[in-house]
Write a structure and sequence with these properties.
The structure is a homodimer of 301-residue chains. In chain A, α2 packs parallel to α3. In chain A, α2 links the parallel β1 and β2. The longest helix of chain A is centred in the C-terminal third of the chain and has 24 residues. Chain A is built from 12 helices and 12 strands. The radius of gyration of chain A is 18 Å and the shape is globular. The first copy, chain A, has 301 residues and is an alpha/beta fold.
Chain lengths: 301, 301
């Protein structure tokens, strides 16, 4: 089963494309998980989160940068969390934004997409700035091992404009990056499948650009961050999706993290069961909102 | 003591700007360090390397991607190796090529440049594609803690052309990135010091571009990879350096890794003392070659 097949099948089964971004901010994790700022609290929080969201999300996207402050102990937790998600049948998109020249990229790609992989991931995010040769070790392993590669193209942060929007002969840089990915889209598409296992990051905060991205990469999966806390609406988030023959918009995942992980203002949730109920409600509510957005009439034909 | 002061002072004392790139390729580490492909062999190899090169190099640049395939065990070794270099008085440039949006970049920056830092580093490499706001957490910590930030601008790999050379209103993208870094150059320059603690990656394989980079960023340190095995000559590598009042070219470090770490073709070195002698000769030879290059007449005035 390819990465794209797995993602599309789960989104159809659930009726929405929600991906939960696993961003463990140490100062927002409720005290009931342990000492504030401890890696034990991070692990307990992430582990509980997987139990709750596994039946309700298409995928989970752990944020490697939020485990790294604990060094090797944080990475050990990230490994166990990825393994737990895999064992729960929940596809893992490791949000690591890696990228380096060939021989080093091999190291990163082996860790996330290799056969003896360290992180039990289905897909990893990579940065294209250094060029196509730096993406190659990831693409080769994704193709060989039925996994995916998610390339940063148009990100959701305000500063994305600084370089991604610079005009390159009549089109912004991000369009040129998307165009350069077309051969990879083809290589990661299995005959008979609607979508490639190439994924592009396309921020929900820039809905007008999602349609343009879709024109360039008609079969690529979209990884849409920025829905929820970052300000993108559900309708905006699926702007680049494609209407399937049965009338549903599909073609990627929409990621929400803070709005699901931290539904309450304070880190002082009540009991564990109250906290679980709050998270379950947040994930169901985001799923329902996205479910409406993908089944509405309109959008791209 | 700021990062730039430390780097410039060491280069003056040694008479050359050699930085050793610590790239532990599992299949090239001599068998005498232990089982091929084991993390124990990687640690023994890196640890010996620091003992040998500490008195002869300006800095060491461990390649994070080559520790990641061992997951948390590899990261634990990377932590110990960085700490050992610091204890040996050898500045550490962590080559991690990190980059992410604000809150996550905070995590990465805290791990490498924070006060309770996990990696004992003086500087970390970062990727600018996502925009200036994604560099900010690194810049803030570098400024507060006397450390450096090395931004990828013009890399040494063939694929660097794919995006970095795209024309943006009459200049390549990498020039626009360099221009955008000017305020950071200023913020990381301490009054009375010749150089900023901002560093830019500027590949030795593109010497004609180093002079242009220097015009844009006159006080920025250059991190020049690609010298040695990647094909850049010593003279090419210092093309962007600046002639000091005492006639020496300075303003950055030149990194060599494979030519120093693996001076012999086969992974079958003889005894440990023979191997040590080979490494010492390789590092001295690279130092001598760079020493000639920085003291030659010519270059930038």
């Amino acid at each position: 089963v390819s990465f794209s097949e797995k993602i599309i099948a789960r989104a159809r089964a659930l009726g929405h494309p929600l991906c939960v971004g696993l961003d463990p901010f140490a100062d927002r994790i409720p005290r009931l998980f342990g000492e504030a700022g401890s890696i034990a609290a991070v692990e307990a929080f992430c582990s509980e989160m997987i139990d709750i969201v596994a039946p309700h999300a298409v995928a989970i996207k752990p944020q490697a940068g939020l485990f790294e402050p604990w060094g090797h102990q944080g990475i050990a937790v990230l490994e166990r969390i990825c393994a737990k998600a895999r064992d729960a049948g929940l596809p893992v998109i490791l949000d690591a934004k890696r990228g380096d020249i060939g021989t080093t990229a091999d190291g990163y790609a082996e860790a996330s997409l290799g056969c003896g992989q360290v992180f039990a991931t289905d897909c990893v995010t990579v940065n294209p700035y250094m060029g196509l040769d730096t993406l190659e070790p990831f693409v080769v392993r994704a193709q060989a091992n039925g996994r995916g590669v998610a390339v940063l193209v148009r990100t959701s942060n305000p500063g994305a404009r600084d370089f991604q929007d610079l005009d390159v002969n009549g089109a912004p840089l991000w369009v040129r990056v998307a165009e350069a990915l077309k051969p990879i889209e083809a290589r990661l598409t299995i005959a008979g499948q609607a979508f490639s296992s190439l994924m592009v990051v396309c921020g929900a905060t820039w809905p007008q650009e999602a349609a343009r991205m879709r024109q360039i990469l008609p079969r690529t999966l979209f990884l849409v961050p920025g829905y929820g806390a970052q300000g993108g609406s559900a309708a905006d988030a699926v702007k680049g999706f494609v209407r399937s023959s049965d009338g549903v918009l599909e073609g990627g995942v929409v990621s929400a993290s803070r709005s699901i992980l931290y539904p309450n203002e304070a880190a002082e949730a009540g009991t564990l069961s109250e906290w679980r109920a709050d998270i379950l409600q947040a994930v169901r509510s985001a799923g329902a909102e996205l479910s409406s957005a993908v089944s509405l009439k309109g959008g791209l034909a």
